[in-house]
Write a structure and sequence with these properties.
single chain; 320 residues; mainly beta; four-stranded antiparallel β-sheet; 28 strands; 57% strand; globular
Length: 320
């Protein structure tokens, strides 16, 4: 499909509604992960983890793994030309596949008590992933050995759901959203570096590529930006959507956010206004609730939604 309204390049259908997407870029190929949203006892009792490939202007599904539980998030590892995938599900399990080699998982293990909300790769650490869950914990895993490296209690009482985690670009620290705050922790020492408070329930966080700024999205639609060097003092706040923010990501120096109202917003920093961010574009990208957004490369964005679709966008066209 050629680029159309608002910069849409291509889209593909997936078997079930999507709850998350992660993009990997670093060669001529890029992959997106999408997963089931909703209750395992509801209309869709099974989950899925779908791998799609982007080549040029084409977006094609390479394969789909069906699961018996709702899948909430996933991440990719590329090791020696093998694609490994870790998925987090609603029962607190992490499941790992050698994706193209077999439909049978290499291993599944209980990572959290209750749902595992997120799982991400740790930068500059081969085959390590960081997960978080409703048990109030974030955990670092050695994936080949299926063993826990470190457990992190997030919050004063170590309880309450941790809704998102984001690693620093150097991989030495991470942010975790819980309640009305985002806590920054040092991975090696398990020490709290800073606590960033916002005015509503924190839903997502993202670390800038230079490592100096972290963006925290809230249920009130406000995106708060903090300089990690200033002991938690906020730089600015951006009103994004009328509803809550579901996921926030950086695209170079610009911010991407998807809302509960099925739109994706792009904001750029206005240099003449200091720390002010101005909205460049809103994309009405999916029917129903928006599920996820990620930056695929310097010129592409990928989104997914509850309408069982994954879409590829031209960043340059979308920002016009």
């Amino acid at each position: 499909m050629l680029a159309g309204t608002d910069g849409l390049i291509a889209e593909c259908r997936v078997p079930l509604p999507c709850s998350s997407i992660q993009a990997w870029a670093g060669s001529t190929s890029a992959f997106g992960i999408v997963a089931l949203s909703g209750s395992s006892s509801g209309r869709f009792p099974r989950g899925h983890v779908t791998l799609a490939e982007v080549r040029g202007l084409d977006l094609n599904v390479l394969g789909c793994k069906l699961t018996n539980t709702r899948v909430l998030d996933g991440c990719l590892f590329l090791v020696d030309d093998h694609i490994y995938l870790a998925a987090a599900d609603g029962q607190g399990y992490l499941t790992v596949w050698n994706y193209l080699a077999s439909d049978v998982p290499l291993r599944a293990w209980q990572a959290h008590t209750g749902a595992a909300e997120r799982v991400i790769c740790r930068p500059h650490a081969t085959f390590q992933c960081l997960s978080c869950g409703v048990d109030g914990k974030a955990r670092l895993w050695d994936v080949p050995r299926f063993t826990e490296i470190q457990a992190f209690g997030v919050g004063r009482d170590h309880c309450g759901a941790v809704t998102d985690v984001a690693c620093s670009p150097a991989g030495d620290a991470f942010g975790a959203t819980r309640g009305e705050e985002c806590r920054l922790l040092d991975i090696r020492s398990n020490r709290t570096l800073s606590t960033l408070g916002i005015r509503s329930e924190a839903s997502s966080c993202a670390w800038s590529q230079d490592g100096f700024t972290i963006a925290v999205g809230g249920a009130d639609g406000v995106l708060a930006l903090f300089d990690v060097r200033l002991n938690g003092n906020p730089l600015t706040a951006v009103q994004t959507f009328t509803g809550g923010i579901k996921r926030v990501r950086w695209h170079r120096d610009n911010l991407l956010a998807c809302g509960q109202d099925a739109t994706v917003g792009i904001w750029r920093q206005a240099s003449q206004l200091g720390n002010r961010f101005v909205r460049m574009k809103l994309l009405d990208s999916h029917l129903g609730c928006m599920a996820g957004v990620d930056s695929l490369s310097t010129d592409k964005i990928v989104t997914c939604g509850l309408d069982r679709s994954m879409k590829l966008w031209s960043y340059q066209a979308a920002r016009m």
